[in-house]
Amino acid sequence: MTPEEEERFKRARKGRNVVLGLVLVGFVVLFYAITIARLGG
Amino acid sequence: MNSTAAPTPQALPAEWRDFFALTKPRVMSLVVFTGLCGLLAAPGHIHPVLGFTAVLCIAMGAGGAAALNQWWEADLDAGMKRTAQRPLPQGRMTRTDARDFGVALSAASVGIMGLAVHWLAASILALSIVYYAVIYTIWLKPRTPQNIVIGGGAGAFPPLIGWVAVTGDITAMPLLLFAIIFVWTPPHFWALALFVQTDYAKVGIPMMPVVAGERATRRQIFAYAIVLFLVSLVPWWIGGTGAIYGIAALALSGLFLALSVPVAFRRSAVEDRMRPEKRLFAYSVLYLFALFAALVADRLILGQGLFA
Asked: pTM of this prediction?
């Protein structure tokens, strides 16, 4: 793997991890909100 | 693993943008809109958080089904100009990644819908995913020129699911919303198929203009436009909506029918610019947005919706 390819590899992996992290945080917030909504109903 | 081998595109991890592209975001905008309209037009009340969750699940289910569709059709997509740039034909992602992503997204959407809203809405969502990914994509699309009619059924589910998420039961109104999109899809798509030189024939997908000919396709567009005109008015006739929707449906569907007439009774010449077909296609998209917006407006203004 050339340095450029390694750079691309790392960038793609980092991008995926950041987006996956944001999605997970989003689901945590969503499930919290759903729980409150269901308990309130 | 041979470390001296030249790295293939598959060796790189797919970018998140490719996973996002796999969900067909442009199709999803119509899915989200009609699903939201079904939810807003339904009688009854749903907690805003649960309503948001329902629409999110509809979008996730559509995205998962789209990913499964591209997993299955990667070889076909590679052979057509319109789809050759997708992540799988381009080798930016492995097929198993696409399949797993589609399955995970679909399963999550059904599970969350069931837990947050209720299991009737979740069951219909599951049915719609299986319908699109299996019955349509894998089974019938490569086998019959009626594939667009059948595929229209998949696109017709969102407002039904949105409505049922609120009411918890299936009545005539959500089934009529389903019927409207179901009948709208063939003239919408065949108008496009008449002026876009698709290469479906090349990859062995039997599209109507290729199989039955241009003349038969034009007549069928007109036939569906007549049925659409009638079906779109039924919600008003049965008292499911008020006059706002009724008058809007009359005007919008009347114009749809009027625009389909020149398409139905002409033949394209050599070097034809296909103006009537392009006009009908462009209008058909606007039509669906406007009709569903009118449905919601009717509910909010005349019904017992937000302002009651």
From this structure: 0.91
